[in-house]
Write a structure and sequence with these properties.
There is one protein chain. The protein is an all-alpha fold and about 575 residues long. The chain has a domain of about 180 residues. Helices cover about 70% and strands about 5% of the residues. The chain contains 22 helices and six strands. The strands form three sheets. Strands 1-2 form a two-stranded antiparallel sheet. It has a two-stranded antiparallel sheet with strand order 3-4. Helix 4 runs antiparallel to helix 12 and helix 7 runs antiparallel to helix 12. The radius of gyration is 25 Å and the shape is globular. It starts with a strand and ends with a helix. The N terminus is likely disordered.
Amino acid sequence: MNSIGQLSLDSDTASSMMPELILILGLIAIVLVPNLGDAKFRLPLTSIRVPVLLGGSRFDMTNDPRMPNRISNLTFSLALLSSLLLISESPREVGGILMVDGFSRLFSTMFLGALLLVSIATTHRLPAKTNAQVPKESDSENVFDRKISILMDNRRQVDFYILLIMVGLGMTMMTMATNLFMLIVCIELASLSTYVLVAFHKEDATGGEAGAKYFIVGSVASAIGIYGMSLLYLWSGSLDLDILRQNWLSMDGVDPFAAFGIGMMLVAFGFKVSAAPFHLAAPDAYSGAASPVSGLLATASKAMGFLALFRVLVMITVPEGSEAIWMITLSIFAIVTMTWGNLAALTSVNPKRILAYSSVAHAGYMLAAIAVVGSGISGTGQSSIILTAVSFHLFVLVLFKLGAFLVLALLETEGKGHEIEHLHGLGRRDPLIAGSMFLFVLSLAGVPPLSGFLSKLLMINGIVSTSASTGSSSSADVISWAESVDPLFWLAAAIVLNSALSLFYYLRIGLVMFFEEPSTEKPLKAAPSLRMAIFACALLTVLCGVGPVSEWLLDMVSTAIGSFMHQ
């Protein structure tokens, strides 16, 4: 048995950490495989030459510019499969700072699924071509620029997929963190890689500007979070989540170090989930990045932020039978976030910005549910139901939110997708793609029987079932009952009203796709793997709303939340 620090690398640990080991092996493969060649080393004082494989003339098969994408797709596929198989495994502690259980594997499955979709979509969004040619002086300007673009795309294949796997490694590791320092390090590993991915198309001015804004705001938020972590360490003397919870529950009153530390971490994670007013960089980042990357930010990165909120707010600071100090603040944030997001989406004409503000609104819905968990009126059973609803919503959000961005990625392959006019007549140009897009926006709006409706219904039901019982049973009319009920009840009403408001801009997308004249009758590009990803998302959006698939997913999420609540 070998050991690195406190990490024991025995067979049991290796099997528990299989998704992460696969990602590391994939990372090594992406670096080494494209550089394989026929170089040989001559043994001293002999004429014997031994192949060293690295260097020399590269092999045609491994030097294929499409190889990094293939390695990435295979890596994420294997890691996703292994994560699914480990969901039902018994909890296992690793190194004193990681806990592998159903809860961590549920979220790692979500992250790896999103990253696999992004990797598949990038096959066509950042295409690699084997017939790349060096531009000539005699080429026209358009031909010259096109050849340069092809060469640049080929050159950046390895860089892009290294960053994508680094995002996956950071996300999957943070799901298992039982130490606040480890949690922050893993979040930053994923975040720093996403900053580069946002600005990856540096030849595009909007991409570079979006990346710079996202990096600056994200760095400030991270610095605030790290300072908050230091305050918690000064207060507790430990960053272990269990010890932090024990010390929090044993406090007489509220220690200023603890309160300010939690508040600063709430600000940091508020940026990660795009909660108002910490969301201001998100619309620019979403609109400036390539659509697959935007979809990753709107789903997996958001889920990462909410998982951090679960670990810090729910696990540490929710007292038994009394109100958490952050409950009122989070409730206000929730209402402002969902309303701000929907109103801003109404005035947007860029489809990516519409989806960005929609993502802000969805963050508000989930924050409202988490606020109820900290209210003190929800028992362990009700809290489990609410957290199950939030986790289920995060899971299915990968399907219809990322699916919508993948449709825009298909439009981006022909240089469009940044204006609402680019969606005009999409139903005539490609009925299946338009139909899939309409399914996605209807699910985002919460229209039955789609998965978005089920997830919102579960959150609203959790809020109502927790708060409605606080109303006076002797009330003579609805008004008097409304006056007596806990104010948290109105968070459910805010979700319903905002969902109704969102229908206006979601239906506008359907209107322009099916009732406006297209600017061209030319069909969309074939892009088979990207289309496959879109249709898979559309099918699962329906199946996860009704039928046995939704029941299976809910059972899996409920079991995972049960393991989290008993940590």
